[in-house]
From TrEMBL:
InterPro entries: F420H2_bilvrd_red/Heme_oxyg, HutZ, Pyridox_Oxase_N, Split_barrel_FMN-bd. It comes from Pararoseomonas baculiformis. The keyword Oxidoreductase applies. Residues 31-149 form the Pyridoxamine 5'-phosphate oxidase N-terminal domain. It holds the Pfam family PNPOx_N. This is Pyridoxamine 5'-phosphate oxidase family protein. Residues 1-20 are annotated as: Disordered. Keywords: Oxidoreductase.
Length: 174
């Protein structure tokens, strides 16, 4: 442990409080990146075990789950119906021409269909342009429960997050 200004060792409680505050700041940044993303990359598992990546339009539910409005005509939807394990990659804005400086979060989760009309409204509030096809019979709402995440805030700045870090209330107070 680092010494304080007076030369003494900080208390274990202070170290735990500092670690908790850091985790809360990281959780807030992860939530911001996810909420601000108008699109993300969804990775699903094919029948043969090979991954499949697709562009999707996410929204974040009040409980921290990720919401997707998906068509059964899409390969990734059929794959989620067979195996709900998936990953989402959210990208922020790059700081410069080096793509490795782009803030990003790769979230691992478990997807399941949801018939919750409030969650559908939450998704549509984030993506109002989709209203014309929101009631097509082949579309349905999917809710992805976060299990873990890796957030990279630039080159060499990787942070592991737990599911609890991605839930509301994990964020630092404003």
């Amino acid at each position: 442990m680092a010494e304080t200004e007076g030369g003494e060792q900080p208390s274990e409680d202070a170290a735990l409080a500092e670690a908790g505050a850091r985790r809360a700041r990281l959780a807030a940044e992860a939530g911001r990146l996810m909420r601000e993303a108008s699109s993300a990359t969804l990775a699903t598992l094919g029948k043969d075990g090979h991954p499949h990546a697709a562009l999707v339009t996410p929204a974040v539910a009040p409980d921290g789950a990720v919401l997707l409005w998906l068509s059964t005509l899409s390969e990734h939807t059929r794959q989620l119906a067979r195996d709900g394990r998936c990953s989402l990659l959210f990208l922020g804005a790059a700081e410069d021409s080096n793509p490795q400086t782009t803030p990003r979060i790769s979230l691992a989760g478990l997807a399941a269909r949801s018939d919750d009309p409030a969650l559908k409204e939450a998704w549509l509030a984030r993506h109002p342009y989709a209203a014309p096809y929101a009631d097509f019979a082949d579309f349905s709402l999917w809710r992805i429960e976060p299990r873990s995440a890796l957030m990279v805030l630039g080159f060499g700045q990787a942070h592991r997050l737990r599911a609890a870090d991605l839930m509301p209330g994990a964020e630092a107070p404003a």
